[in-house]
């Protein structure tokens, strides 16, 4: 039976190949469709397909009604983007003030930290594409404060994606935001240094998780999970991390999540010693580095969630060409399929020398 793509649902079974621009069909006969296939067909502007009258589970397929997409007010969208950016920068500014107070020896006020983040956590959960752009608001001098806020936001987002409860997602976000609080106990000369650290200075920096732990221990509102999370966020599965060098089975879930968020933001951000990098390049590198170091399910959730949010985005390729991201394969999510302005389709997984340099716009 022939139906419109907009009427399909997961579980439909193709009765004929969907032809493409090459000899290889876009979707083969007998394929059981899932959400990715449906998005793929829409991306290629396929209008109708042939499917079997029964779904894969044996139930009769009843084509759904074609739904019109609700119109989006441009002013509302622009306002929302501005709100998130302003909220983020406001959080960075407030975090900096809190950090300065910790340097003076004041205690961590958990209610103040929580009030700083909760609205941002919610906004980012509903609009994860902002995670691909907020690092552009960084400035090198205030990197530490941007890093803490971003790691908190991303940790909460990943917690929710990993199906933690609402409260646990907030808790892991706060854990991420406070994981570097102990940096306040380091000499100002180290924090301000723009060049490479000496071995002695680096050894001091490696103690910051312990300082964070001590600062938070006994503070009202700080759970045991947050305490262990900040202490272990630089630990690695192969025991190569610090400060304790513990192995995989002893690393808390909060630490696993914050470790990935921490690494991602550090790698995409502009630093005194290197320029910022493309999220796609960083995600690809983290995927390669995860084995023996990071929790696979957390890395996979980060990669798939962020790449999914780029569908429809304009990107600049390493060739200098601009293209639109139209589809990604779960087997190679960091090498999506893109469409050039002349409608040429490029499968980056088949072009190892070509990569996405920059996300231009949604």
TrEMBL record:
Ranges of residues in domain HD-GYP: 122-318
Tell me the InterPro entries matching this sequence.
HD/PDEase_dom, HD_GYP_dom
Q: Which PROSITE patterns match?
A: HD_GYP
Note the Pfam families from the entry: HD_5
Name by which UniProt lists this protein: HD-GYP domain-containing protein
Organism, scientific name? Halalkalibacter oceani
